[in-house]
Amino acid sequence: MKTVVLYASPTREMPGGSISTKLAEKFLVEYRKNFPNAEILEFDLNKEEIGIKTLTADKLVTKEFFSEATTKKFIELLKSANHLIVSSPMINFNVPAVLKNFLDHVAVANQTFRYKYDGDGESEGLVTNLTVQILCTQGAPKGWYPFGDHVAYLKGTFEFLGMKVNQPILVDGTKTKSFGQKSVEENLSEYSNQISKAAKF
Ligand SMILES: Cc1cc2nc3c(=O)[nH]c(=O)nc-3n(C[C@H](O)[C@H](O)[C@H](O)COP(=O)(O)O)c2cc1C
Fold first, then answer.
1. Does the first or last residue of the chain, that is N or C, have fewer Cβ atoms within 10 Å of its Cβ?
2. Beta carbon of 16 within 6 Å of any ligand 1 atom
3. How far is the centre of ligand 1, averaged over its atoms, from the C-alpha of 98 (Å)?
4. Which of 94, 162, 93 has the alpha carbon at shortest distance from 125?
5. CATH topology for 2-198?
């Protein structure tokens, strides 16, 4: 049993810490009870080349972008793992750039998906071994921005790559007054049932 955990929050080193990271840590406490023998590989995308390196015109033309240390390493990892746990806040209506960079590195035609445009107009995902748990936060209450839904974006992208995606957990309204009146731990305890159910996969 191999489990890959991705942390994407830019607030991880702020004095108050990161709520999406604490959500993932709370999830992992339950997860470890259910899968005590799992090999858990954790990556802070703020510190990884795959999170920091952005797709630019020069890096694409020189083929520097899809490197052994990024694309090859992580596609192999994703194809050999059972579970993927992704922790991400909303930053300017979508996922943080480090997570978008990660997806740009691993969404590669004929490696993680295949076009079938000649057939029924659909594509085929090639990472069918993985089940994903999305753990997200956002400052605003859910639904405030019809044009910004990072949970739907992640779910759709992972499904496109062939992965099975469990019911995502979204801690929303982290910037609201009512959220701020309680501690992060108290706020997250409201998600305890959802977390313990989801951590069974
Ligand atoms: C630079 C920045 C941009 C943000 N953009 C949004 C946004 O577009 N919509 C939103 O609801 N919250 C936004 N937030 C609030 C965060 O999603 C929220 O505070 C989240 O809980 C912070 O990440 P964390 O959960 O890892 O602590 C933003 C926060 C930061 C720091």
1. N
2. no
3. 14
4. 162
5. Rossmann fold (3.40.50)
Distance between Cα 18 and ligand 1 center (Å):
10
* 44 touches ligand 1 (CB under 6 Å): no
Band of the pLDDT at 119, cuts 50, 70, 90? low
**Alpha carbon of 144 to ligand 1 centroid (Å):** 13
List CB contacts of 192: < 8 A, sequence separation 6 or more: 26
* Most ligand 1 atoms within 8 A of CB, residue of 91, 176, 179 to mutate: 91
- Whether the pLDDT of residue 111 is over 80: the answer is yes
Instruction: Judge whether residue 104 has pLDDT over 80.
Output: yes
Question: So where are the chain's domains?
Answer: 2-198
Flag whether pLDDT at 24 surpasses 80. Answer: yes
Residue where the block lists tokens 């759709």: 156
Contacts 24+ apart (CB under 8 A), 163-166: 163/84, 163/125, 163/127, 163/128, 163/130, 163/131, 163/132, 164/130, 164/131, 164/132, 165/131, 165/132, 165/134, 166/131, 166/132, 166/133, 166/134, 166/198, 166/201
